[in-house]
């Protein structure tokens, strides 16, 4: 078991771990509404007590909402077809793409990353260590220029490699977006095509996830129906809380760049654990080669991290498998309970759910949806 490095767990750069003290919006009802059930209560408290502008939870059959889609507008919170940047959940898609190449014997888990990425030619880091966040590669997000949309993956990796390693490969666990930046580069070297195209061809199109997409270079806004996002922009923190609906999504790449909807994201989780994307043995590896990471303020006690997926304990027993995602302007949580009767849920907020009570309520909403509502 790898030791956990808690200082590396933050989902984005320190500048991104800022939220907005938004005006409290009137709690929406969604379905069933009125704050009378456990899911709705958690959403209402995120809005009423923590100043989150808008929040949504979606299972296979029900949608709950609270707050508004845009502060000061009174516009109802968008539904399950609303676009949202899924941030770190992108890693799960990238991990599935990598594991597909492993199952096809085009790539090995013990292969050194430097075999495919020249900048890592002298590194001992392996594909497995990139997947399970035990490489020790330092974070690049804290050093990138959010205004420079011409930065390449090689440019961003150079920013990381200019820093001291967080730890020796395999010695500890530490969340770093650089791991999945490198995995995207490996996919491209192995397949000869952009990792975005590979994910589209092998995951998005077969599952008919038509509302999920990679932002184009220079694209700042969100396509389709969407709520506004709020927080402090990492490129201009002194400006204070602002509307963060426009962000350079292309820069977030294989570690955080996907835009999806709650409906599409639920489709992905069900397909992964139903065996429609990978052989069962590959999913078994993803969920059994894990590190304990819970109790750090970001992840509930008992959380474990595997290959781009994490297990979260449920109050009703067992776990659900999924991921979390955070950007300046939103937080996304959710996943799937494996098995014939397993449920699926996606919860997201339109400002970052900070560590502490707000983060706990985000997880509690997912737990309530899986434990107290019909699946």
Descriptive labels:
globular; 14% strand; 375 residues; Beta-lactamase; 10 helices; alpha+beta; eight-stranded antiparallel β-sheet
Task: Provide a short characterization of the protein structure.
The protein is an alpha+beta fold. It has ten helices and 14 strands. It has an eight-stranded antiparallel beta sheet with strand order 3-2-14-13-12-11-10-9, sandwiched between helices. A two-stranded parallel ribbon has the order 1-5.
Q: Would you give an account of this structure?
A:
- This protein is of the alpha+beta class and 375 residues long.
- The chain has one domain (1-375): DD-peptidase/beta-lactamase superfamily (Beta-lactamase).
- The protein is 28% helix and 14% strand.
- The protein has ten helices and 14 strands.
- It has helices spanning 38-50, 90-103, 127-131, 153-161, 177-191, 195-204, 253-256, 262-273, 280-288, 357-371, and strands at 3-4, 54-58, 63-67, 84-85, 172-173, 230-231, 242-243, 259-260, 291-292, 304-305, 310-313, 319-327, 330-336, 344-349.
- The strands form four sheets. Strands 3-2-14-13-12-11-10-9 form an eight-stranded antiparallel β-sheet, sandwiched between helices.
- A hairpin with a 4-residue loop joins strand 2 (54-58) and strand 3 (63-67).
- Helix 2 packs parallel to helix 5, helix 2 crosses helix 6 and helix 4 (153-161) packs across helix 5.
- The protein starts with a strand and ends with a helix.
- Mean pLDDT is 90; it is low at 6-35.
- InterPro entries: AmpC-like, Beta-lactam-related, Beta-lactam/transpept-like.
- Residues 50-83 are annotated as: Disordered.
- Residues 62-71 have a biased composition (Polar residues).
């Amino acid at each position: 078991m790898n030791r956990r490095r808690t200082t590396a767990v933050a989902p984005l750069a320190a500048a991104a771990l800022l939220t907005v003290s938004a005006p409290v919006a009137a709690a929406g009802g969604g379905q069933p509404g009125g704050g009378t059930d456990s899911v709705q209560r958690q959403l209402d408290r995120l809005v009423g007590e923590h100043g989150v502008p808008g929040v949504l939870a979606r299972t296979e059959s029900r949608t709950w909402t609270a707050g508004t889609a845009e502060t000061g507008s009174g516009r109802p919170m968008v539904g399950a077809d609303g676009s949202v940047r899924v941030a770190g959940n992108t890693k799960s898609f990238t991990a599935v793409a990598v594991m597909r190449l492993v199952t096809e014997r085009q790539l090995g888990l013990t292969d050194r990353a430097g075999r495919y990425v020249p900048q890592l030619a002298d590194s001992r880091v392996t594909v497995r260590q990139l997947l399970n966040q035990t490489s020790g590669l330092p974070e690049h997000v804290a050093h990138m220029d959010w205004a420079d949309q011409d930065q390449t993956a090689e440019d961003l990796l150079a920013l990381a490699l200019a820093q001291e390693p967080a730890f020796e490969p395999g010695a500890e666990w530490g969340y770093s977006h650089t791991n999945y930046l490198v995995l995207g580069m490996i996919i491209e070297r192995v397949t000869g095509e952009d990792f975005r195209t590979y994910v589209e061809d092998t995951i998005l199109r077969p599952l008919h996830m038509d509302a999920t997409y990679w932002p184009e270079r220079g694209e700042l806004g969100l396509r389709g129906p969407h709520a506004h996002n709020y927080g402090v922009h990492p490129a201009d923190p002194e400006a204070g809380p602002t509307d963060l609906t426009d962000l350079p999504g292309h820069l977030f790449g294989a570690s955080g760049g996907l835009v999806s909807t709650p409906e599409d994201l639920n489709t992905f989780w069900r397909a992964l654990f139903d065996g429609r994307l990978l052989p069962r043995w590959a999913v078994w590896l993803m969920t059994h080669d894990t590190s304990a990471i819970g109790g750090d303020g970001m992840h509930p006690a008992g959380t474990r991290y595997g290959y781009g997926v994490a297990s979260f304990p449920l109050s009703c027993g067992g776990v659900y498998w999924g991921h979390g995602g955070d950007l300046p302007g939103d937080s996304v949580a959710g996943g799937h309970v494996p098995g014939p009767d397993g449920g699926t849920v996606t919860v997201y907020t339109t400002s970052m759910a900070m560590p502490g009570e707000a983060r706990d309520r985000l997880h509690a909403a997912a737990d309530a949806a899986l434990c107290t509502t019909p699946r």
